[in-house]
Amino acid sequence: MLLIHEKRTVFRMEADLKSQDDNTLIVGPSWVGDMVMAQVLFILLKTSHPKGKLSVLAPDWTRPVLNRMTQVDAVISLPFKHGDFQLRARRDLGKSLRLNNYNRAIVLPNSFKSALVPFFAKIGNRIGWRGEVRNLLLTDCRQLDKRKFPKMIHRFAALALPSSAELPRELPSPKLVVTQGMIHNVLEKFKLEKYGPILAICPGAEFGVSKQWPPHHFISLCNSALKDGWYIWLFGSVSDVPVANEIFAGVKSEFQDRCVNFTGRTSLEEAVDLMATCSAVVSNDSGLMHVGAALDKPLIAFYGSSSPDFTPPLSEASTILKTDIECRPCFKRVCPLGHGKCLSELLPAVAYSAVQSLEIL
Length: 361
What we know:
Order of helices and strands: EEHEHEHEHEEHHEHEHEHEHEEHH
Radius of gyration: 21 Å
Low-confidence stretches: 1-20
Strand content: 15-25%
Number of helices: 12
Structural class: alpha/beta
Number of strands: 13
């Protein structure tokens, strides 16, 4: 049985905290999608402290999305590879931040090492969820109640508030700001013109194949859309090139002049700006899915091993496609049963029906 769930929640923030100057350092997540969702926290902080300064310490690959968030005043490079401990380098980075006079740090990743820089920066109020003996580094180390905070955005948002406070009834949605100048520049760089409705296709997912809709399904979807008058733009990172090439090769020859494969050819910054020109987005549960939602694009999202109950796209116009197979969600990178039915049984006809329901053509 196939389920289509439309997410139609419009979030609104009601500021009830007295505005005051604030200087906050956020240790941001390393995944692009998580960073997009972290904007919920940024919005809450800026709403309660509009004159305050918000700095985000994060890997450089997340900078393109941070640069498109109006709440972020400064981005500080976190120059460590994923998993690297580098105690001395983290200590030196923390010491270099002392002159910034942060009065608060909020640590979003759950690792011990992610809390080291604020500790060495001697920031007086260091907030985060308990894990990996982080109580040694955090001054406000909180015990996570997963039932109270089931979604990732709940867990991020809660760190903006005192531990005893309740979350607002409605939370804000991420919103990336792309200007007409940015769009003009990226279209000019790739020598593009818009002739009709563009469907952005995002066939990759860094987490693993258990989150990736099968390539032959994407091929069928693309050919159906192209036949009806859509243009297709494929997006993804270098690691997504093989699957994107397979999809592009499967497009019928008479349609290939209306299909552009940007996978591995753009920076994330360029991909965001190009996606801002698209009419709709079809994506696996990935960072680009959250980017599409934050650009407020009509979105069709596939969920296999992961769950929209934890990391849904946060937009008014999102349609979630998933199967009701009992073994999902397993949250595994590769299907432990070897069949991948949670996505293979999600048929192209159902996906294209969802695209047609957008009524863009």
